[in-house]
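Table S5 (text form). Sequence records supplied for joint modeling of the two-component complex.
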Amino acid sequence: MSDLESIFHPKSIAIVGASPNPARVTNRFYLYPLLQFGYEGKIYPIHLTAREIAGLKVYPSIMDVPGPVDHVSCAIRADLTPQLMRQCVAKGVKLIQIYTSGFSETGQEKGIRLENEIAEIARRGNVRVLGPNCMGIYCPGSKIAYIDYFSKEGGNVGLLSQSGGNSMEVVQIGNSRGVYFSKVVSYGNACDINEAELLEYFTHDPQTKIIIGYIEGTRDGRRFINVLREATRAKPVIMLKGGTTEAGTKTAASHTGSLAGSNVIWESFFRQLGVMQVSDLEELIDLTLLFQHFKPVRGRKLGLVGSGGGASVLITDSCEKERLLIPPFPEEIRGRLREFMPEELDPGSIVHNPLDFSTSWPRPGVVPALLETTAKYDGIDFILIYFGLGPGIEERITKVIDPIIETRRNFSKPIAMVLRYNQAPQEGKLAVDLQRSCAAGGIPVFTSFDRAARAINRFVSYYEQRQS
Amino acid sequence: MPDLEFIFHPSSIAVAGVSQHNSTADMFLDPLIQSGYKGKIYPIHHKANEVSGLKAYPSIMDVPGPVDHVTCGIRATRTPELMRECAAKRVKLVQIFTAGFSESGEEEGIRLEKEIAEISRRGNVRVLGPNCMGIYYPDLGISYEPSFPKDGGRIGFLAQSGGNSMRLVMLGAARGIRFSKVVSYGNACDINEADLMEYLADDPESKIIIGYIEGTRDGRRFVRALQKAAEAKPVIMFKGGVTEAGTRAVASHTGSLGGTDAVWSSLFRQLGVMQVDDMEELIDLLLPFQHWQPLRGKRVGLIGIGGGYSVLLADASARAGLIVPAFTEELKSSLRDIVPREADPGTSVHNPVDLSVSGWNPDIFSKALETVDKYDGVDFMLLCISLHAGCIGGPLKQMIDKAVDALVITKKKLNKPVAMVILEDFAPETRKLSSGIQEIVRQVNIPVFPSFNRAARAISRFIQYHERRQ
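The corresponding structure-token record, covering 938 residues in total, follows.
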């Protein structure tokens, strides 16, 4: 087994196909992100005739670069890659990442032959290959990225993705909800470095505490299952499997050339191994968010705290459908809650579980006091807050959300929040800022009751299953 | 059977219990003023002469002309007195926002609600509530929330919960849903879900009916009304309190008997009522009903731009019961003429068609869409685009704008319905761009969904509804 650690720490990167034309994909995905991230190693743009690109000295080929070249990123035509591969061997390059598609995933003889040729040169010449048909590596710790607006802040989530496009979706949706990554690898057709090797790497990587993956299929099922078993013993593993239907499977074949296999087989593997399987990108982020923020929880008893009678009914339904428990509060707790929210002042308020603070939220100190009382109650394991950002959104933020974030650290129990907003642009801006500030304060935010309840159930179930 | 038409056409509305600054009753005064209600508005205040630029009266008895509606947010204990005044003044409808009646489960509240119902019956004053938000009828400028859209639509909505009614109207508004009439009816001590369902079933302005209910006190009558409505129009119900804990929450919310989930679900199924179990799903399902005629079948042509997500798109469609037919060689080669592989090796002309970044080229995109539209083997098209913060400001933004313009023009030439999925990272700038696109394409009847699964599920249920009626 090879150690992949070195692929995340190149001292120099050559970009083959960098162009004086700023709109070219090679610049957009490989040059600008490195500049934007402030990559500290050497960057060598490779172009036949240009002298300088983005202020960097250009070389006509990697052979002309004076010092060593650790990585090569390229988006050149598929039929030109074998020649580049041979140069990489000669130059002692450690890793070449190939963006270009048109290889085995086309299903055509020519593409398959080209990919075999590349794999053969790689093996004999001791050059590792990522791809072809992939985006490459995002490692904020090493200041390497393939999209310039990915977060510069790193985290503890490792992502391996067969699809480049889906890796971008996951990182961007994740970043905007406060999920940050240790390392992300988009590996495409996997003619050399494959899902099994990456999964093995993440299993042992101390920076990665949670492993998530998008895969469409594998060419070496047995090995993949072995490493998956090892990974799930060490860390939470969440998988989004693309190609779970016949239509999706056909698409996967033409996308990354994988044999997707039947859904039933994958599902039962995942279940047996304790892998959490999700069915869309949103659910993947929902679940990751909880693992990123929370330590294992003790049980599935929830205290629901929020505002709105109808909302209380719906969130209770959502939780119970997901087998979460909403125990009634005892008289003693209800009495204490009533002290902060007298019925005379707010006849619409309710001190059952769900606790409905109705129109009491603008009174200073009420929301934190209610939360503190709920959090101290021994009969619940987890608090879920629900609140709508409707009209008067600014006041709602300063009087409810901000105090919750400020007092969060006083409570030993995990707190998550469902923040419903109307998706109008003006509200959307505030809501997104809020998701980030809540996440920074240790409070994961969801946008629907069902999604919150589903993610919490799966999170709790994960630890229940590991105990049993 | 009562004809409720009059409750939507008051010539005058008195708002009782307003203050000069900031109280619950002002919640009802401001929306009327801002929504452009054309009738007379009378603020009732015990000593002020003027509130919000309107002449105020100390009591409704002091209002010179007739008063059709009274809206009030006064303390529960004072409502019987107000009701008696309304009877004397021959008010037609009183809407009571205040909570603290039967839903409290306490004797005093139950007694108060009975007293109100009794005065209503004897004095011939209809009551909406208590514990409700009232009426939103945009065509007449009647509203209980100033941010609700001023333009109306074709969806009639009855809601037992005021808060959920607001949330749904606002969520829907942002996604292009427009309402004919919305009634939040709360504890239903007089006008109830059955009355309103009967009304909406006959209302020519409401083509689709949706309901949020937690329970009913007269199940038999409600079922009859629901049956009649479902025979006439698509009816979508969102039942709150389907679990045991949810039912407990219902009891303290609107004092209803929630009933068991199994009973409600089988009832809905029998009557051909579509049941949804969250708000997002409800809005999703409304979009095709609002924008589309019934489809010929469930075969979808999938087209992605800026792609990589074709696999998930195909999975979501197939999982929801849609058919993703393989394209013929002839169709594939026509598509290949539009996007040659040499020009963009990342493209794919199977179904899903992946136009990759070439799809942002308006010419390529329009031609591909027209080509799939002409193909007899699909019944509708689902487009997918993906937007990120990085789209904004650069050359890509201009391409996106052009592609959207091209879509609007092309759509008018197409024979088949088109829906769209916009994936986004929810960064503030993206939110703005995506809302803008949604707003534009809505004008040409392209409903927009935020995820593959949600689009596929909603469209599939829309198709199933029409299949069952055939």
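Note: The longest strand of chain B covers residues 380-387.
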